[in-house]
Amino acid sequence: MTTAWGVIPLNQVGLPLVLFLVFLVVTMFTAIINSPHRDEVNEFYLGSRTLSPLRYGMAMCGDYLSAATLLGSTGLVCLTGYDGLLYLVGTAIGWIMVLLLIAEPLRNTGLFTLGDTVALRMRDRQRPVRLAIGVCALVVSVLYLVAQLSASVALLTQFTGMPGGAVRALCVIIIGCLVVFYVAVGGMPSTTFIQVAKTALLVVVTVVAVLLVLRRFSWSGDDLLGAAAANSGHGDAYLRPGLRFGVSTTSKLDFLSLALSMALGVGGLPHIVMRLLSPGSARQLRTAVLWTIGLVGAVCLALGILGLGAAAVVGTDTVRAADSTGNSAVLLLAQSVGGTLLVAAFSCLVFATILSVAAGVTLAAASALAHDVFAHGIRKGRVEDRQEVAVARLSAGAVGALGIFIALLAWDWNAASLAFLAFAIAASSLVPTIVYTLFWPRFNAGGALLGLYGGLGCSVLLVAFSPLVSSTPTSLLPSADFAWFPLQNPGIVAIPVGFLLGWLGTVLSARTADVATYHEFEERCLASAE
Amino acid sequence: MNQFPRPPAHHEPGDAPATAAQYGQPPVDLRELRRLRLAFGTRAAVTVVGGYLLLILLSGFAPGLMATALWGHLTFGLMWSLALFAALFLTAWRYDRHMRTRFDPLAGRLRAHRDRTAAGRGER
After folding, report:
1. Model's pTM, two decimal places?
2. Does A252 map to a domain?
3. What residue numbers bound the domain in which A53 lies?
4. Which residue of A has its CA nearest to B118?
């Protein structure tokens, strides 16, 4: 990430800035007027339960598609063609697991957090299990939050060139404080509002940009592919596998590991789980997830076209010269097909994306802390509503502060790697517990604890000994070398280990299966009261 | 939730002993409901996710196959990627139809039965 100057000339910063401010004022105003009352614990965690499925779908899409996808994945498509496109396919594919296996059973048995569902199965040992879930949710969410905050630096870089230390810190702190404000003041209702607004903006801006790009190539996808290959500097290799992952067997396995995390991890991300619990009935949820799949799928296709368009119109060399990570591809493309107005719209969109995803993640982490750890883990459920809401608001501040702190330390970490790491940890610790809780009658607290802590520990351990931390110039500790695990993404090992440990813990635990509890649970899982 | 047919008469809640009324013997077999959800869900999930992982594997270890030109600049791998999007949308649509026509009516019957059982217990 070395940029000598900003992609966007300073005299054009006015329009994006005005758009940012309008977005900020409108969303903050809504956050304040919709703020849940101090004892409305339901309202704080779930927001309105009677929105239309389309709105829920837009909120889920807004929660899911992050700045890393918007800037990072389009950049990868622009720089590496075929291999970059595979990222976008994975981003969309992950939702099928959520729709088919996780969404409705989880909503039917859930209340505010994942801990509530699991506690239904393990009433007498719910405290340690809730604590374990809270810890895993917190780790995943904070990683994801740090990724969003580092993305704000990447956005700033597009305007000012590589910012100095003080400017960078200021940017991260301002964004972090805004996010904490939305969550602490507005809870779920204001988070939902930002996410819906962001998705509306996302759809409008990407559709306009795609139409402008396709018009350039006389509405022919083949011409677009041809021009992209020609201007990429790679020729036909651009449309073949290998530019990014073809280097060695290790890099191929690394991508398989990443793909596995993306395909399985979505349903374990705490902010997505929280969204799934919000709709008032299972059918509403189903329709909402269908909308989400439609929106996420369409946007991913559109981003693929934009990435190819950036290579075709702007040229890969120009993109790489502006920013070696490719983050500026989509803004450069906007500049050349739509002029200043489209650039301003895109910048505002990225800004809205950072805020909305970061707010969703912070809310999920705050509710894991307040509901699972504080209300049920520490106070054993004896807590007043207003106390819990107050703790949730405080937790939002604490999570935000932690996120800002880590983002300031780790600002030069790749935002996309951090986000994918969060996917891998979610897929190896939370997903096995969700799947076993919903579908395996024998599953018990021993399995849950071993699966959660084991999956988490395995991922963290593998990352600690991976090239992310040591042995390469881009690592956290470039001078050290203890990276015996060659892959950047631990998913391919950690996910099977997580499932295995969940099974092992159950089998080794002396307790017999509680058939009556599971029977009751399953009945609720299949057909809950509405 | 009254758009569903009432359960058959021979399963009046009064007939069943108290424990069964608590846990079930509902008009719908839970195993059937579970099968309806999981049989479709697992098969479809394995197909779509498997299709994606296979695409990644083949792109890594059989790049020549994926680079086969189909027409114009469209390669086999790109075609596969597009097909996955189509499969995603198609599966979502078919899942919705499956659940609406096969699963929801049974689940509604179970729910209605449970509500009446609860109401019956309340009267006694």
Report:
1. 0.91
2. yes
3. 10-414
4. A529
